[in-house]
Every structure is written in C-alpha cells, then in structure tokens.
UniProtKB/TrEMBL annotation:
Keywords for this protein: Cell inner membrane, Cell membrane, Membrane, Sugar transport, Transmembrane, Transmembrane helix, Transport
Main location: membrane
Official protein name in the record: Xylose transport system permease protein XylH
Subcellular location per the Swiss-Prot or TrEMBL entry: Cell membrane
Record-linked Pfam families: BPD_transp_2 (PF02653)
Claim: Membrane is one of the keywords in the record: yes
Function: Part of the binding-protein-dependent transport system for D-xylose. Probably responsible for the translocation of the substrate across the membrane.
TM ranges: 20-37, 49-68, 74-92, 99-121, 167-188, 209-227, 233-251, 279-303, 315-333, 340-360, 366-382
Tagged with keyword tRNA-binding: no
Topology class, membrane: Multi-pass membrane protein
C-alpha cells in the first residue's frame, strides 16, 4: 500500500491526473444533490438519468475522436437534427420502413462527416471553418426536409420510440449485463497483465486487478439493483454501453486507434512514420458524423418527434463540454471514449439535480460553463506540469 501511495503522489506531482478530477466531481455532485433532495438517487431518477445522457453522449463519443485528432467539429448538432428529420420524413410521410429510414439517416450522417473531412484533409480548409459551414448548411437542409409542417410526430409504438421507451424488465437482464461486464473486465485485465509480464514490462499484480474488479462490480450491481427497482434495464443504456466498449477497443487496441493518437500528437511525425494522415482525418470526421446522427435518433426517440428545433440550443456545447469535462484534451493526442460517459454523467447529474430543486436552466448553464472552464484549466496545468517533469 505504501508503494501505491508513493506512485499516486508521483503521478499527481507530474500532472498525470487521469480521470481523478471528474470522479471526485461526480462524488461531490451526487452527495450535494442527495443531501438537498433524497429523490436524486431514487430508482426513477437514476433510470431517467441513464436515458437522458445517451443521446448527447453518443454525439460526445464522436467529438472525442475529433479532439484526440487535435481538431473540432461544430456541425454535430445540425447533423443530429438532420438525421431525425430524415427518419421522420421517410418513415411518416413516404412510408419507408423505419429500419431502412434509420440506415439512410446514419449513412447520411457518415457521408456528410466524410465530406467535412475531405475539405479539411484534401483541400486544406481549417476544420473549424468547414464544420461551421456544415452547421449552417445542414441546419438549413433540415428545415428544407421538414418543410412547412415544422414538426413531424413519430410512431409511438415504432422502432425509433423503442430506442428509449423499451426496458428489459426481467431482473436477470440488469444483473446479467453487470455480470458480463465485470467478467469481461477481469479477463481483459488478467490477459493484459500476463502479456505485459511475458514482455518484461511493468504489469498490475493480481491483487490490484481483483480490487479494481471488486470496485467495478460494486458500482455496476448497485446500479442494476436501482434500475430493477424502477422498470428494469433501459435499451438506450445498453446501446450506449455497447458503443462505448466497441469504440474504446478501436481507439486503444487497434492500429487505427494508434494512428489517430499519432496524428493528434504530431502530424508531421505521423506522416513520416507512414501514416496516411488524410485518410485518418476523413475517417474520424465520418465517424463523428455517424455518431451525431445516432445521437439525433436517440434524442428524437425521447420526444417521439422531429422538429425545426432539433439539434439546436445547447446540444453542441454540451457534447463538446462532455468530452472535455470527462478528460479528453483540447490540445489533441490524449483522450478516452469513456470521457463521453463521465462528462455526460457530470452534465446530466447537474441538470437532473437542479430540476429536482427547481433551479432555473440559466443557472444550470452557468454552472456547467464553470465546470467546463475548470476542466480546461486542469488540462492546461496538467500538460504544463508534465512538460516540466519531462513526461509530455
């Protein structure tokens, strides 16, 4: 234990904070709101929060990839609204099956994202300008697609509505999902430690792996218990979890993910190492467009409609804030897909707690802005400390 404490102190001194600030923030936020209103951690509120974070969280996942690349995507809000409009028009007005309409909307989001990447990578237009143009253009296209009606209601018993309206009500579903995640985590940690030991590099001892697994199991099984106290495991949460796991594997465990980090860390070094920088950039923006479309469908599912206001308001800022608050660096080359989850938990918890206390949304925006500023300050100080310690 003394060795772990020394290592923890060394990481703090060298600026390697990881997800510690956001985890501490979540604990403080949860404790304060539960103290003010004990309904904050009630089964219904936890279930509602788990669905609330999914739509914007999916958009934030795409933003994480773009930020790791060292760029920004301002078009994700408009793309999310456009995807909802496409599904509504195709399925309601044109009679296209909802499943096919969903695929068309997702493909459109990916194609338009790739278009942003093409102008950025091949033509040399700054990503900020390209995606700002996309924000305006796709917002106009959304209004054109919806037409004079303005709002189109979706089938409340259809596929889109089920994305956020369906629950796995059997008790075994939530507990089984928690058990699968814990078992997979334990296996992954064990295999990683064995591989690192065989390579003769530092690895986590079995005792630490078991402690980490026990903490994760306690959190997940407690969440499963609370969800089962209400209506069970939400389908939307399952979708979000699967996307996080898959894209985390892509970013951390594949050559493609290493290329994304390489380009974000140093473009010229990546190019000299043989990385196809243009292809990586185009693919990242395509992924961002795909995730924006996915998030737009989840948001449309919650209100079972697509309207002129879809994708507007604070959606873009919340998605970017979630990625940054969760620990992804604005300076490129550092981040994790799980940042989207942690950041959305912070933003969603603030919104949920303030709604319970009857605090105005304007105050919520000010507090969220303050949290975002704090996250950027911590990131900046951390990078400066790492450079001073020779670890940047």
């Amino acid at each position: 234990m003394r060795g772990y404490l020394r290592e923890f102190g060394r990481k703090l001194r060298s600026g390697e904070l990881g997800s510690l600030p956001v985890v501490v923030g979540l604990i403080v936020i949860g404790a304060v709101f539960q103290w003010k209103d004990d309904a904050f951690l009630s089964p219904k509120n936890i279930s509602d929060l788990s669905i609330l974070i999914v739509g914007t969280g999916l958009i934030a996942v795409g933003i994480v990839f773009v930020l790791v690349l060292g760029e920004i995507d301002l078009s994700v809000g408009s793309l999310s609204g456009l995807s909802a409009a496409i599904v509504a028009v195709l399925s309601v007005r044109e009679g296209v099956p909802e499943g096919l309409a969903v695929l068309i909307a997702l493909a459109t989001g990916a194609a338009l994202g790739a278009l942003h990447g093409f102008f950025f990578a091949k033509i040399g237009v700054p990503a900020f300008v390209v995606t700002l143009a996309g924000l305006l253009a796709w917002e106009g296209l959304k209004q054109q697609v919806l037409g004079t009606t303005g709002t189109i209601g979706l089938d409340e018993d259809g596929l889109i509505a089920d994305l956020t309206g369906h629950y796995f009500t059997r008790i075994a579903a939530a507990y089984g999902a928690a058990g699968i995640v814990v078992a997979a985590f334990l296996a992954a940690q064990f295999l990683d430690a064995r591989r690192r030991r065989a390579a003769g590099i530092p690895y986590r001892p079995m005792a630490e792996i078991l402690v980490r697994t026990a903490v994760l199991a306690a959190l997940l099984f407690t969440a499963a218990w609370r969800l089962n106290e209400y209506m069970g495991l939400p389908l939307a949460l399952v979708i979000f979890a699967v996307v996080l796991v898959v894209l985390d594997f892509v970013l951390r465990r594949t050559s493609y993910g290493r290329k994304v980090f390489a380009v974000g860390g140093n473009v010229e070094a990546a190019r000299r190492a043989g990385v196809n920088v243009d292809l990586v950039r185009i693919s990242v923006f395509a992924l961002s467009g795909l995730m924006a479309a996915s998030g737009g469908l989840i948001i449309a599912s919650r209100i079972t409609s697509a309207s002129q206001t879809a994708g507007t308001g604070t959606l873009l800022m919340e998605a970017i804030a979630a990625a940054v608050i969760g620990g992804t660096s604005l300076f490129g080359g550092r981040g994790s897909v799980w940042s989207a989850l942690l950041g959305m938990l912070v933003i969603g918890s603030i919104a949920s707690g303030m709604a319970l206390l009857g605090i105005a949304p304007s105050v919520q925006n000010m507090i969220t802005g303050g949290v975002l500023l704090a996250a950027v300050v911590i990131d900046s100080v951390s990078r400066r400390t790492q450079r001073s310690a020779g670890r940047a």
